[in-house]
Amino acid sequence: MGRFPAIGPRYLAACCSAPCDAKSRECRNSSVLTGLTLPPSARNDAPVNSVMIETEELSRSYGSTRALDGVSFRMGQGKVLCLLGHNGAGKSTLVSILATALPPTQGVARVAGYDVVRQAREVRRRIGLTGQFAAVDGNLSGRDNLVLVARLLGARRAEARTRAGELLDAFDLAGAADRAASTYSGGMRRRLDLASSFVGHPRVLFLDEPTTGLDPVSRAALWEMVRSAVADGTTVLLTTQYLEEAEQLADRVIVLGHGRIIADGSVAQLKEQLGVSTVRATLADPAALPAALAALHRAGLEPQPGEPAGTVVAPVRESAALAAVVRALDEAGLAITGIALSEPTLDDVYVSLAEGLPELPVLS
């Protein structure tokens, strides 16, 4: 298969996962995502609905800089946890600690019930990891990259090639399967890197900004792969700067700010607690905008001029305020040609959080 690749986190995890006794290897045919199985001890040691990721006062310092500061949370099986935060918030540091690539300065972290420091080998047997940058061997073909990972995980040669073929098809790489990965485009290398994470059917899958560099079609395909893995019981921890991605996939969202948890809940909970809906009314007479602003101020709202001209916009905390806007404008004798209520988005939630956190940039 050519030159053996440098040992990085994925290969290290795979080497630590491979059974030492070839006779003990257990393989089976399955779907694209379920593929290779773990040894029985790794596959059955956590009950259904068990806690798969747990941290207690987890901290990490680089000199005087505190990248993580007392992070505590628990995540159950078959769920997607999305980490949001600005660059430098601590997202990648947290993933690195949970994936055993970086030790914490303080605190405890467990994955699938195993301590990431004292039982790192057991953790590595149960996880898949895709980092921010594609970690593939450019001298190997796409197929051989995947076969290598499968062999390190203990698969027989025939099954490793079968598994590689399944994933090459799933990630739309079959047409370039036997080309050197160095000839791949950036998006293709990214898809190959993602495919490697699915080779061994991990109990916990860490995806650190996995769709960076992917086109919309490839991004949507990855979302479906994640949903399928979760349906099979895999727990996914996803970091992203695409808020739409979090809305599409997350069962739970944790927002980090300067190494600390500043918000935690489902998308719906965060929107309800921190988001603000917006009423947008279009006036029949654009010249009546000053009167409309005054009328809504008297009703206790904080209206602003909107676009196009003759539009008034007011943030509201509940949908019942829509009627209050209509009533206030009607009592002022102002006719409208249209009115709409926009529900809050995760962008709104993040902006709301950013207002209380100094130097916190807005995600795009």
UniProtKB/TrEMBL annotation:
Classification via SMART domains: AAA
Domain ABC transporter: 53-283
One example GO MF annotation: ATP hydrolysis activity
InterPro entries given in the database record: AAA+_ATPase, ABC_transporter-like_ATP-bd, ABC_transporter-like_CS, ABC_transporter_ATP-binding, DrrA, P-loop_NTPase
Pfam families: ABC_tran (PF00005)
Keyword Oxidoreductase: no
GO CC field: plasma membrane
Topological category with respect to the lipid bilayer: Peripheral membrane protein
Record keywords: Antibiotic resistance, ATP-binding, Cell membrane, Membrane, Nucleotide-binding, Translocase, Transport
GO biological process, one term: response to antibiotic
Coiled-coil residue windows: none
Cellular location(s): Cell membrane
Protein family per UniProt: Belongs to the ABC transporter superfamily. Drug exporter-1 (DrugE1) (TC 3.A.1.105) family.
Database matches in NCBIfam families: drrA (TIGR01188)
Full protein name: Daunorubicin resistance ABC transporter ATPase subunit
